[in-house]
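Posting for a labmate who doesn't have an account.
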Amino acid sequence: MKKKLFLILVTILALPCVTLAQAPGKHIEDREQLWLGYFNQTRLSNKFGLWADIHYRRTENFTDRSFQFLVRPAITYFVKDNLRI
């Protein structure tokens, strides 16, 4: 009986601490975005090839805001048909 009373008392005293320790609400921001990507892998010979990764990114107010244009080319070496460096 004393143990149950003690648990009830601890629960009642701890409840306000739990409700006050909650994290603040999330701030959600809606944005319009456009993200286009182009990936290409071209084999030039038995051992060598070209690889390209091109991205175009824009955010809200497409005419007013700046954009990102990424180009990542690479030379590919084929160790085996399923292993590339």
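Reply:
Got it, the structure tokens are right above this. The radius of gyration is 29 Å.
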